[in-house]
TrEMBL record:
The gene is dgoAa. Pathway: Carbohydrate acid metabolism. The keyword Transmembrane does not apply. It is an enzyme of class 4 (lyase). One of its GO terms (molecular function) is 2-dehydro-3-deoxy-6-phosphogalactonate aldolase activity. The keyword Cell cycle does not apply. It comes from the Bacteria. Keywords: Carbohydrate metabolism, Lyase. This is 2-dehydro-3-deoxy-6-phosphogalactonate aldolase protein. Belongs to the KHG/KDPG aldolase family.
């Protein structure tokens, strides 16, 4: 079991956003991670369908301060949870809400953010031990669904829309009850330099601070 659940929630409250580095290469992971951290990000995930994702997770975990949570995205099977843990990962992010994967993360002492698209999936994920709920895909669900979910899901449960989120689009989701966001291609796409990622990260952080 995870003995430090507050650490993840502290990181989430710090900036409210998870950086998704889909396609990042091991050789550039440290520089991009540093740019994100210096911009204010405190949670970074490397999807497992990236090149050498476990090596990138290890590099990020070794190079970033302890208050930054590093983990894996697109985790599909329970067996992958141990691989992520062995690489130094602390967070399991999923596109789906497979209870076996959520329980594997919980039992390994890792945080979990399963993807959910219905209230039924959301409550099942929480029953299995999910730490936060990844509302995916956000483009399809929209802020109206966030508002409807928030009426029945307690405020202390983080709802994180993921998919198509831009700095300009955050306010309407936040007003509807979103606790934070997962950021993909609007923040990072393969081929961007660390400086380009820094500029995008700063724009997102500025937009987040404007919501306070």
């Amino acid at each position: 079991m995870n003995t430090q659940p507050q650490r993840f929630h502290d990181a989430l409250r710090s900036t409210g956003m998870i950086a998704i580095l889909r396609g990042v290469r091991n050789a550039e992971a440290e520089a991009i991670g540093a740019a994100l951290y210096e911009s204010g990000f405190r949670i970074i995930e490397v999807p497992l369908n990236s090149p050498e994702p476990l090596l990138s997770i290890t590099a990020l975990r070794k190079s970033l301060p302890a208050d930054c949570i590093v983990g894996a995205g697109t985790v599909l099977k329970p067996a992958q949870v141990e691989q992520v843990k062995d690489a130094g990962g602390e967070l399991i992010v999923m596109p789906h809400s497979d209870g076996a994967v959520i329980r594997a993360a919980r039992d390994a002492g890792l945080y979990s953010a399963p993807g959910v698209a219905t209230v039924t999936e959301a409550f099942a994920a929480l029953d299995n031990g999910a730490d936060v709920l990844k509302m995916f895909p956000a483009e399809q669900l929209g802020p109206q669904v966030v508002k409807a979910w928030r009426a029945v899901i307690a405020r202390d449960i983080a709802l994180l829309p993921v998919g198509g989120i831009t700095p300009e689009g955050m306010a309407v989701f936040h007003a509807a009850g979103a606790s934070g966001f997962g950021l993909g291609s609007a923040l990072y796409t393969p081929g961007l330099s660390a400086e380009q990622v820094r500029q995008r990260a700063e724009a997102f952080v500025a937009a987040w601070k404007a919501l306070a």
